[in-house]
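The following record pairs a protein chain with its ligand, pyridoxal-5'-phosphate.
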Amino acid sequence: MLSIPFNSPFSTGNEWQYIQDACKEGKLAADGKYTNKCQQFFEKKYGFGKAYLTHSCTQALEMAALLMDLKPGDELIVPSYTYVSTANAFALRGCKIVFVDSRSDYPGIDELQLEHLINDKTRAIVAVHYGGIACDMDLLTSITKKHNLFLIEDAAAAIDSYYLGADKNPKPLGSFGHFATFSFHETKNISCGEGGMLVVNDANFLEKADEVWNRGTNKKAFISGQRKKYEWVSLGSAFAPSEINAAWLWAQLEEMDAIQEKREKIWNWQQNNLPNLLAHYDLDWMNIPSHSIHNFHLFYGLAKSLKQRDELLNHLRQKGILAVFHYQSLHASPYNLSLVGQGQRQHLIQADKYSERLIRFPLYTDLDTENLRELISS
Ligand SMILES: *Cc1c(COP(=O)(O)O)cnc(C)c1O
């Protein structure tokens, strides 16, 4: 039995009450009271253009791919060190995924390696805010503007994170891209089990986003009386989650400040204590760049080698603590190698480094740090 799991979903206690209230409203399908409460929360608090709840961040990325009207052969530049969905959503539309390496100082996209990957087939850059840590958005927005590309922020883990640019005015992640995507999977700071959200900041896409979100129909325009018939008008899918999910999510959003405070305490504890408690392993510890105001999503260290990382993971497991590695770089994935050919494996030095040596410690809202200290010292 593990005493400290890697993750444990947090609930505020109000979730059930809101689900019962949604039942009383007499509407459990999508786009009701709680969906709107959640979407407006993001639009008001962070100034996002328009928010659409989805069943996952994966789906939000797929919805962005449909909105951009991507065609087979179009190219997207994507960091290799990320979750599968960042690439898969665009590969589904027949696009070519061009992988770029991470930075040496933290796992975000290496902005300086982007320009030589851009050609006349390139349509977009997908920037992943790794672990809620901002990419260099001044650089990314200037590159995408200069080459007339879409900028998509995969902000799956970046709720309530900010970028501090040259103007020294913190701006929320998710407010820079034409599109931004978030996750409410149970491993993220705010969750409803499985859930996500697409943010559309480019107003040109709003009418189409309503259609794609509503299974490719003009349902929204029909209900508001702008159209006479309810018809199939574009490609789309059933992207909108039920009011049950949205009610659960609302209970969490309402308590977001309290949740973030708890996580901040745990993150600070880990930063102050893990280097001493695990001094024997001499890890390189997580580095937060000065342009990032992060959200206490994760805490990691870098082992000296793959072998040392596995030793530490085993050591912790024997003490009842489940730490994990994550992101096996996509350029070296079985699926990508089946596309490009086994002999064509790229060598992205930083992505390979993080895949082999990064170790994530358990960090969840109710984590008991004293228990963690006792287990490690046992
Ligand atoms: C969690 C995560 C996803 C996937 O989110 P789901 O909601 O589980 O689909 C995608 N990208 C990144 C960077 C993530 O961290």
